[in-house]
Every structure is written in C-alpha cells, then in structure tokens.
Amino acid sequence: MSDSPKPVNFIRQIIDDDIKAGRHQAIVTRFPPEPNGYLHIGHCKAIWLNFGIKDDYGGRCTLRFDDTNPLRESQKYASRIEEDIRWLGYEWSSLAHASDYFDQFYEYAVHLIKNALAYVDSQSGDEIRRQRGTLTEPGMNSPYRDRGIEENLSLFQAMRDGEFEDGEHVLRAKIDMQASNINLRDPVLYRIRHHAHQRTGDKWCIYPMYDFAHGQGDAIEGVTHSLCTLEFEDHRALYDWLIEHLPVPSTPRQIEFSRLNLNYTVMSKRLLTQLVDLGHVAGWDDPRMPTISGLRRRGYTPESLRNFIASVGITRKPNVIEMGLLEKCIRDDLDPKAPRVMAVLRPLKVVIENYPESETELIEVPSHPQRPEIGCRQLTFSREIFIERSDYEDDPPKGYFRLAPGREVRLRHAYVIRCKEVVRDARGEPVEIRCDYDPETAGGQTPDGRKVKGIIHWVSASHAVNAEVRLYDRLFSVADPLGARKHDYLDALNPDSLQCLKDCKLEMGLGQADPQTRYQFERVGYFFQDSASRQDALVFNRIVSLRDTWTRKSQYSSN
RNA sequence: UGGGGUGUAGCCAAGCGGUCUAAGGCACCGGAUUCUGAUUCCGGCAUUCGGAGGUUCGAAUCCUCCCACCCCAGCCA
Question: CA-CA distances (angstroms) from residue A548 to A128, A129, A542, A551, A553?
C-alpha cells in the first residue's frame, strides 16, 4: 500500500545499507501492540512504518500481540486492533502472540540459569527496588545473587509449578548492579502472577517481562529490524545482551524513532482511558478522540491518515505536530472526491415575495465544480427557503458581501435576491427575511453585467430534509494540555468541543444519503454520517470545516 | 550532579565537508482565477543551521567546550 513516492528516512537508509551489504535475505518487521487499549494516531506512525517497509521491500511484517501481562489485556482489545489495522489499509504477513512462545521463553530462561546468567531472587519488590540504586548511585547485589545453579533451577521450576504466591520470587538476569544503565542492574525476567491469561488460560502462573519477551519474540520470528519508540532506547543494551546470551535463531536489531505527538490533544493510553472512564467523551470511538476508531467515526479516511504520517516523517527528534496538518490532509483527500451538497445548519427563513406561491422549479446542478464525472443532482427552488443565519447581517462589517438590508446576494445555483425587509421577534432578532428575486439571473447569469460578489447556500423550506449535525472542535482548548500543570490537564478540556445542532436543513437528496459517502456541505465543511445515523434520523458528523479566510479576517478587524 | 538521546524558520523536515547567500510540506502574508470568502494558480516568507571556539582553501555537515530540552530508578509495555 503506497500513496505516492517512496518515503525516505533514516531507518530506510539503514535498511538500504543492510541490503547493499548483503546482511539479509528479506526484510522482516513487526507491529507489536499490547492488547490493553485502542490504537491511536500515534500507533499509525508505527503501523505505517512497519507495514510500509514490508510493502516496499517485499518483506514480511507480523502483527504480534505483546500479551505478557494478563492483568491488563483482553481479546476484545486485540480484535479492535486488528480491525483498525485493516481499516488503515494494511495486512499482516502473519499473526502472532508473545504468549505463543511462552514454552520457548521458559527454555531460554533455563538456559540462562544453567549458564549462571540468571538467578531466583527471593526478596520483596521493595527490597529489590531499594537495592537498585538511583540514577546517580549504583545498586547493590542481592543476597540471593550467588545461589547455585541447581537451587535456581529447582526454585524456578517450583515457581512455574505454582508452589509460591505472587511476589515471593522473581527470576533476574545476572548482569551488573553497578551498571550506569539501570536496565542492566539485574533486570527482572519473570514474575509470578496467579492470573488466567486470555490465551493460555491457567497453563502458566509465571509470565515473562517485556524485556524478556520482546527481543526473543523478534528473534524467533526472524525480525531483521525491530522498530520501536525512543523510550525503549535504554532497553537496547538489555535487548542485545539477551540476544547475545541466548541460543536464538536470529539476531534482530532494535532501532528507535520518536513518537508522534499532536497538539490540542493527549495521546497516552492512560489519559485516553481516563477521558473515557470519567465520561468526558462518549467512548473510545468518540469522534473527538485521537484514536483510530474515533477518527474513523468522525469521517477521516485511511488515505488521509497515511498521508499525514508520511508528511510528518520519521526521525529521532521529539516533536509536536500541529493539528492543522492533519486537517489539511483530510481536506486534500476529500476535496477532489466529495460530492457537494447544500445544508443549512442554523436556518433563517427567507421569503421571496415576487416568486409565485405555488410554483417550484427543479434545477440540475453538478455535484462537483471541477469534476463533472462525479455527476449531477437536482435541487428544488421555491418561494420559501432557508439560508444560514450567519449569511445575514443587520449592520455588515467592512468587506462583508453576504445579505444585509437592501443588499443583493446570489443563491448558489439559483437566482440573485435582494433583501427588502426583516421580520423580527420580540428580542429584535431577525426571524424572516423578505426578498425579491431577479428572474433574469438564473444559471449564473447577470444580463446587465452587474457584479454580485456574495454567493450563499440555501435549501427549499418545504423540500428540506431534517438532520442532526454534530460539530466537533479540538478536545482541548490549549495546544499543550499537559504543559503547565500536569495534574489538571482536564481543566484544559474545551467545553465547546461538541456542538449538537438539531433540525438542520439539508437539500432533499440527502434523504437517501449514502452512509459511506463523505459529503462537502458547500461553504461549511466535510461531513460524514455517524454510526448511529439512520434514514429517518440522520446524524452527520463534521469531519473538518472548510478553510475559512473570511471569519479569520473579520475577527481580526473587529479586535 | 549517572547513563542514554535530541537541537536546521511558528510546526514538521531534507541535508551525510564544496553544486547551501539551506530542498519540500504545513502555517502565515500578498495577488490572479472562481456561481463554494472553498479548490486551483502565481509570488513572498532562515545571509543562516542551539551557542562559543577550532580544523580546513572551504563546515549545517569534522573536533572541543558550553547551553537547552527529552527519556530512564514497574515484579507495566
């Protein structure tokens, strides 16, 4: 799956060099999520990288669930992850689980013990932590560090056989408690957990740690390039140590890259879980969430997400990408293919006084201004229509060329109308505009050559289809929600991130709207039907607004 | 103050000692076209590469020192 020119980045350069040097027959990568949550757009980067390399180099990429901690994982998450990857347009060469290798991992552990490279530590977690030292002080050896091989072997066997409670013992690698890299200070390899595993059931009561599973899983699968994010940098020494001291079938290489950060949102699984649990969003697939399922429900396309990642690139530099780039990517993807349609979100009634009461006319118009092959649709014009509330101003600011008292505006694909009179409610708010239309101005014509700059969208009042429209905005109102006060990131939540508009007026054709189609509501934005939308109760989500230089400019001058 | 990293425009990012008075994208600012204030188009936007020294005929690219920021002390991944 490639979207355009082959990407260039430092990882692909390494791979190119490896191929040139004849180091590998085939390039093998893997995408290794833990099935304990939903995938988010940050994962897209890893997916795009790993699967993209597979596709471009004719290699393999396995989807491997790193399911080494039965306490927090479930099959439900695994299924959603598979669904999301497929939706993004990728297919794994094979599906695997770290748990598939539990027997092998156990053998590897025994191998280390037999070579005096691992020992069973019988201290408590607290004791082990205390002895680990600190960032600046070295650690101390455990009193159990020099247990004999036979004793270690039988203790480890007993751990496996369930003879101990959780936490009574752990298996540790015997490396160097003085190491400046804390990961090398006799890291824990196995811990006891009397907890059923979603795949292996009660077979095991000891489970390998990430460090003891990841590299070995890579080696078993023949992974050549094990790509992960920067926070595992310090683990590489341990990764390499294990590969070196174990009889593994291949020697994978770990390469780290920086993770994706987006402004105006949060990306950590922990925080996203909290937003869901606290009810700040409607679920993992709430269209405001940066999860794949949220973006999908919002209406983002797989192409736009892939293009987004491609344009961001892969480096080792910590980064924060602007939300605007993501928005630009979905607009670029949708602009050439989204059928245009007219929809009035905040209706204001307009009565065209000189248009006959009983008359209506059908206007056939193209569904795309630049691409006739997308087809045509029919609009109905009549005496009473709705226009957007914001397309009328009592006292228009400089440069406003929509409707105002005495002014003319063109109704898109229809006639020019002139505002004659405004009917107001008790509070003085306009509730109805009385206009005249110029019958000579059909089809974009102005026979007398007069310029009518403003063009607004409209919908025939009696032919409109009602719908609920949900307008989404950024989840947080500050660019960096975790910036100043890490504890109160919830205070930075944008109170207006969701606006539900009921009784919006859509052009009649939308009564048969295709649920798979992303539409452009002209002059407003791109919209996609929500998963809860039904033919008799339409719900549209705003994917993204159109670029809008007018409101920006007018806000400027009014400030 | 231990170790590992990273620093090129507001945000990304090419660049790998000479073709760099530094690609490209986003954002921004013009201007043209337009029945979407959209799209498209055209133009502008770093004499400078975290800083200071040094090596070299020549440095963003090599060396030294300094500064800033990120990650690491789970029986999480």
Answer: 59, 56, 15, 6, 9
